[in-house]
């Protein structure tokens, strides 16, 4: 389909997974614009010594603080320190990694571990390019699941037994603990992976549960830090997986100026909005809504 800007990609032997992802990425408008204009401008930020010193002293102080800890430290005096640590970790990350990919796709995840023995909270920050969401098991066969259900399961407190728990930094032991994930920093483009494949000892199985997802105004604010407010995203591409674990095929649905198109290797056909949701949806590409971006 030369001239329309919609170009299919030939399958050269099990390359449909590659084709579908390339289609989704090439519909990330600001990434495409960037590649087309070759605007490789780099702005290197430098670590501020004073900021680092302030952070360091703050942390040292809290470790040797003579005052007894507050009753609920995670929600009171520790909150500003956590925010500051998150910001510092992010600055350190940007010092090492600086590209258009980072600008668009990377976000920050906060993981909080709470020790049941000594009540110590330890917080770690990780950079992510995509979030892998678990699909909740439904007791009723055929019962549908929403993307919100997956996000709730992803962010809900998880009980870790002694074996699976990391070492508590205060007790120095593995203890029964709880873990919680929060999206500390939202990327411009968020890639949500619906984790359909479950590995057991002898085999991999695929969940074919239909997961419904909003095309516009997906609000991820509730999965951010307390009082984040709405953080809205709009869908622009979907990577689909059909078939079984061993005999599967990938396609992509992508949005352009003329609407949604289905990219099935070299074939490109229009697709109705009402057909986008299926039990084959596998990776969802959302971009931050312009109004959300302006507020940040
Ligand atoms: Zn502990």
UniProtKB/TrEMBL annotation:
GO MF annotations for this entry?
cysteine-type deubiquitinase activity
Which ranges carry the USP domain? Answer: 7-289
Q: So which domain of life are we looking at?
A: Eukaryota
Reactions accelerated catalytically: Thiol-dependent hydrolysis of ester, thioester, amide, peptide and isopeptide bonds formed by the C-terminal Gly of ubiquitin (a 76-residue protein attached to proteins as an intracellular targeting signal)
What SUPFAM superfamilies does the record tag this protein with?
Cysteine proteinases
Query: Which keywords label this protein?
Result: Hydrolase
Q: Which Pfam families match?
A: UCH
GO BP terms in the entry: central nervous system morphogenesis; cranial skeletal system development; protein deubiquitination
Q: What is its EC number?
A: 3.4.19.12
What InterPro entries does the record tag this protein with?
Papain-like_cys_pep_sf, Peptidase_C19_UCH, Ub_carboxyl-term_hydrolase, USP, USP_CS
What this protein is called in its record is ubiquitinyl hydrolase 1
Q: Which organism is it from?
A: Scleropages formosus
Taxonomic lineage: Eukaryota, Metazoa, Chordata, Craniata, Vertebrata
Q: Which gene encodes it?
A: usp21
